[in-house]
């Protein structure tokens, strides 16, 4: 029996609660198949600051490197917002992305038809559903560029190399070949030199994929088009900062950020998987957080890192069935609907897996 080693970073706020639900799903799937999991828990984020004075301790990074994949809940909260930049929980995320070589962030934005009323857009704009994949370069750009400040000013450097651009573009085109063969590359080439370089090398990679339609779009226009006509998009590929912003926008037009997963991939099969939502400290400990985004992140883990596509499909189908059955946590419920707890929603999905 094969055993997969999973590094678990529960993090802060609702992170440990939604991770617990995801682990329950993983254990159930493993019990029905010929494999098992070894879960090793490590500190990350605010809880690591409190205990180790470090948002991403070295033992956490070492544990992740020794694993087949990483499952992350969420980090951060108001408690740590006044700390210096390098000590904040979010700086730990930047560090682990660099240390693990997690250069490609995949964030799907799908609209469940049963939740169409939760979409803030007019129904005719999302007719037929919504299925967008934002692929964000994760270890370069302005977040990792040289930065400094003095008493009156500060600066951050935005820089991309041909290697970084080609690498993320290849992920986008390979992914598009398995979808609708359409890639929109988002930049700000009318203003930024780094974006002109980005556009040139994306175009070079595009020549290797003649079946894929590739177009360019300025980031301000892309932000507008996402709310004007989102169905025009299939795969969006863009840099670190633009991807950070656009993927959140794409998530919110699906109705709830609590439904959406993400994968951060290194070269090869290694990846870190986490929900798109944050730590939501205002509801932490109440048992009402939506576990679906984390459970769907596990499905991505099964598909991209563990070579278990059949089980990934089964998890996604079980989630879709639960939503179709009317299973709702507080964030996706409308007035009059029964609201499930985190554990109840997880059990509903497990019941569908069993069925």
Describe this structure in words.
The chain is α/β, with parallel strands linked by helices. It has 2 domains: 199 residues, Isopropylmalate Dehydrogenase; 134 residues, Isopropylmalate Dehydrogenase (3-Layer(aba) Sandwich), CATH 3.40.718. The model has no long low-confidence stretch (mean pLDDT 94). The radius of gyration is 20 Å and the shape is globular. The chain is built from 11 helices and 12 strands.
Question: What is the β-strand count?
Answer: 12
How many distinct folded domains? 2
Distance between the termini: 24 Å
- Shape type: globular
Under CATH, the topology of the largest domain can be stated as Isopropylmalate Dehydrogenase
Q: For the CA atoms, what is the radius of gyration?
A: 20 Å
Strand coverage percent: 15-25%
Largest sheet: 10 strands, mixed
């Amino acid at each position: 029996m094969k055993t997969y080693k999973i590094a678990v970073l529960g993090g802060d706020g609702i992170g440990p609660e939604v991770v617990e639900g995801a682990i329950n799903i993983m254990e159930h799937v493993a019990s029905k198949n010929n494999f098992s999991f070894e879960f090793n828990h490590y500190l990350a984020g605010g809880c690591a600051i409190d205990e180790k004075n470090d948002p991403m301790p070295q033992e956490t990074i070492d544990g992740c490197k020794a694993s087949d994949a990483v499952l992350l809940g969420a980090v951060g909260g108001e408690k740590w917002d006044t700390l210096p930049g390098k000590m904040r929980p979010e700086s730990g995320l930047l560090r682990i992305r660099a240390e693990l070589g997690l250069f490609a962030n995949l964030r799907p934005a799908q609209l469940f038809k049963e939740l169409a009323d939760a979409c803030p857009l007019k129904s005719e704009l999302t007719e037929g559903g919504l299925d967008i994949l934002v692929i964000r370069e994760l270890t370069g750009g302005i977040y990792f560029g040289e930065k400094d400040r003095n008493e009156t000013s500060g600066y951050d450097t935005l820089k991309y190399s041909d290697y970084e651009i080609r690498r993320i573009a290849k992920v986008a085109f390979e992914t598009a070949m398995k979808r609708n063969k359409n890639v929109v590359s988002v930049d700000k080439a009318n203003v930024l030199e780094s974006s002109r370089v980005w556009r040139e090398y994306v175009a070079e990679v595009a020549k290797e994929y003649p079946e894929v339609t590739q177009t360019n779009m300025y980031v301000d226009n892309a932000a507008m088009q996402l709310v004007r006509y989102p169905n025009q998009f299939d795969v969006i590929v863009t840099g670190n900062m633009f991807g950070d912003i656009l993927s959140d926008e794409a998530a919110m037009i699906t109705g709830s950020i609590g439904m959406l997963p993400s994968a951060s991939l290194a070269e090869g099969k290694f990846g870190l998987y986490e929900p798109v939502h944050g730590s939501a400290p205002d509801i932490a400990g109440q048992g009402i957080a939506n576990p679906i985004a984390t459970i769907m992140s596990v499905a991505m883990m099964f598909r991209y890192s563990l070579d278990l596509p059949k089980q990934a499909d089964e998890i996604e189908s079980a989630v879709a069935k639960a939503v179709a059955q009317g299973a709702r946590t507080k964030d996706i419920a409308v007035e009059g609907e029964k609201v499930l707890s985190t554990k109840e929603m997880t059990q509903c999905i497990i019941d569908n897996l069993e069925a």
